[in-house]
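The instructor's notes for this session suggest beginning with a concrete chain rather than abstract definitions. Hand out the sequence below and ask the class to guess, before any prediction is shown, which regions might be ordered.
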Amino acid sequence: MLKSYKFRLYPNKEQELLIQKTFGCVRFVYNQCLAYKIDKYKTEEVSLSKIDVNNYKNHTLKAEYEWLKEVDKFALDNAVINLDSAYQKFFREHKGFPKFKSKKNNRKSYKTNITCSNIEVDFDNRKIKLPKIKWVKARGIRRFEGKIKSATISQSASGKYYCSVLVEQEDCKLLDKTNCNVGIDLGIKDFAITSDGQKISNPKYLVKSEKKIVKLQRKLSRKSKGSNNHNKARIKLARAWDKVINQRTDFLQKLSTELIRKYDVICLEDLNVAGMVKNHCLAKSISDCSWGEFVGILQYKADWYGRTISKIDRFYPSSQTCSCCGCVNPETKDLSVREWTCPDCGATHDRDINAAKNILKQGLLAV
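After discussion, reveal the predicted structure:
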């Protein structure tokens, strides 16, 4: 099993300069090789292989530009691999050539591979050894066991450095059976409503920070582009967004772990989030919920610990169907109807809890 561990890096000035040089060299190699591939395709109608592009990088670019030898060679090799993946996608989807990487992009990253002992983690002293950069101070290091496969060094828009270490480990120990199953109806007012009747409120982190973000965005728009003050304002805005993202991620991780430990089978709707955000009245609220990310986290944790995720058809009328007798009441299709009484059996339902119960029934049929 492959598992990734992400740490915050604190490089000194020399290490930071080398990391920035590596970012620039990776971008330069990517753009030069992409231009070379496009030129060959247009003039000679030849699609160069990854080996041909790698030879061009080693024999032509490195010979002409000596400064490419100052940085990690594995980072440049991975730039060619990423380019080949993007170029293959061009042939599959026919949506145009891959785009050139911009120097103005504030999110940067490169990947390096392990050979011998060029990547190591010192858990006691909180340091990480990386090719060319040597030992870097780190924070948030969690102990792990396994073979390190690669490391990805990145810089966020707020200027913070991170290292994501990919580790090959033994499979996680499966959790004990609880003999409990649950259906979950995802919503906006309440983030999740379970078939047990529990309602988990939506923290709405974006709404809480929206005034601050709007204020910082207004200040940024008043600064001259390219100036130091513009860059300072941009970093402040990026940090405000980082806080929202970190709060949301923390909430999703803790909630998903709680559900995985508590239930054997978790039933969900197969929501079309991309289609739902086209509703301009609810787009911001839906995006703030991050349902897609939540389902993805549940899925990989279920794979780790031996749980089951069951998804039902998105067109199943879970909110309109009586969970007691199965009668479909089309009058409850309007979202303003929060409680309703079944015309057949007379049972009174809370809209969301009733939907969660129906999701549970349908999901168990598919298991």
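Then share the key points. Residues 2-168 form one domain. The chain is about 45% helix and 20% strand.
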